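Lab channel / #folding
Pinned by the channel admin:
"Please post every new chain as: sequence first, then the structure tokens as a reply. Keep commentary short and put observations after the output so the thread stays searchable."

First post following the new format, from NK:
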Amino acid sequence: MPQVEVKCSVSNCTFWANGNNCAAPEIMVEVDRHANFNSEFAGELGVQTEHQDKASNSAETCCRTFRAK
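Reply from TO:
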């Protein structure tokens, strides 16, 4: 399986690393029924990785791997 760089702007996650990178050994991705996305966008528009956000729990993110520091 190819290695990929995973960007993350949730800076209070245990796995957050400098440069807005995710250092988790594995990532859990699932459908977010509460998100309001009308189309795929990551490949077309690019992902904004310059900002840093904070979350209280994984339900506030699109990442089920999130664990608060």
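NK: Residues 1-69 form one domain.
TO: also worth noting, The two ends are 29 Å apart (CA to CA).
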